[in-house]
């Protein structure tokens, strides 16, 4: 019998919580029946919901009457929300009660709490938010997506190393390509930090296949397997892509509804449009990973629905099943061992 994998869930985070969270768990259980959950939130409220009946055999309620609000500052969440559903769920990973945590709550608070409680891996100054996105060649990994607005060259190099190790150990890519997002492909383009990071990656003896600078249109083209950028630029790129997807979806609906010919065209193209919708559905790619921590932490989009939350649960489960953090630790240990214990910036 396959041993159960336990995930800690912040049931109170997200616009549709807690109903959306419990329904997402139900969907995730249909895909992976061996999952078990520690559900953190107001126990009386959770137990009263209809969705609880469908998942309770796989879950344990852990009471918390404190919630991290969407507008709470990270520092406030750290100081005053020690008994919140978010904090207790992260604590469960630290204590070994769960193999990962999923929350759709306040991103800044989750990052601050996770970094404080779990700490970062050796050689990593700041964790980075990473997620997959569809491309013309399949999927690519992109980081950072908002955790670190201001990054220096060393931060970008650390993101590149984490992304490369992730793509190799989890995605199974033998030699993943890494690209630094910039405003042009020429060496003179971009601000000082991105130019310094590129210079370092070109000259370093790290086991990285560095493609060089890439531009915004290279993201969708799938020019590289891992896109590296600072959190400010990455978050804008992500939200822009989401907005454009929604925009074209609206345009298509209006075009098909504009005439009888359009409605007939929709009927003829319905199956193809369904496949397209499924391929670019943002819920399918929901679940951003906080890379660089001593524990598996997955951030779900706060505005997602149950299907999207289930995808975030799937991401956390896959990372735990694949021994992601152990692989990352081993790779970094080997990296620094091979370079006589030097810091990454000195390699």
Fold and architecture overview:
- By secondary structure, the chain is α/β, with parallel strands linked by helices.
- The protein has helices at residues 19-31, 43-48, 50-55, 74-80, 85-94, 107-118, 153-169, 192-203, 216-221, 231-257, 260-280, 306-321, 324-338; strands at 5-10, 35-41, 59-63, 100-103, 128-135, 138-143, 177-181, 209-214, 226-228, 288-291, 297-299.
- An eleven-stranded mixed beta sheet has the order 3-2-1-4-11-10-5-6-9-7-8, with helices on both faces.
- Strand 1 (5-10), helix 1 and strand 2 (35-41) form a beta-alpha-beta unit.
- The longest helix has 27 residues, at 231-257.
List keywords for this structure.
347 residues; alpha/beta; 13 helices
Low-confidence runs of at least 5 consecutive residues: none
- Portion in beta strands: 15-25%
- The gyration radius over C-alpha positions equals 21 Å
In helices, the fraction of residues equals 40-55%
Average pLDDT value?
87
Overall, the morphology is globular
Number of strands: 11
List the SSEs and their pairings:
Elements: E1 5-10, H1 19-31, E2 35-41, H2 43-48, H3 50-55, E3 59-63, H4 74-80, H5 85-94, E4 100-103, H6 107-118, E5 128-135, E6 138-143, H7 153-169, E7 177-181, H8 192-203, E8 209-214, H9 216-221, E9 226-228, H10 231-257, H11 260-280, E10 288-291, E11 297-299, H12 306-321, H13 324-338
Parallel strand pairs: 1-2, 1-4, 2-3, 4-11, 6-9, 7-8, 7-9
Antiparallel strand pairs: 5-6, 5-10, 10-11
Helix pairs in contact: 1-12, 4-6, 5-6, 7-8, 7-13, 10-11
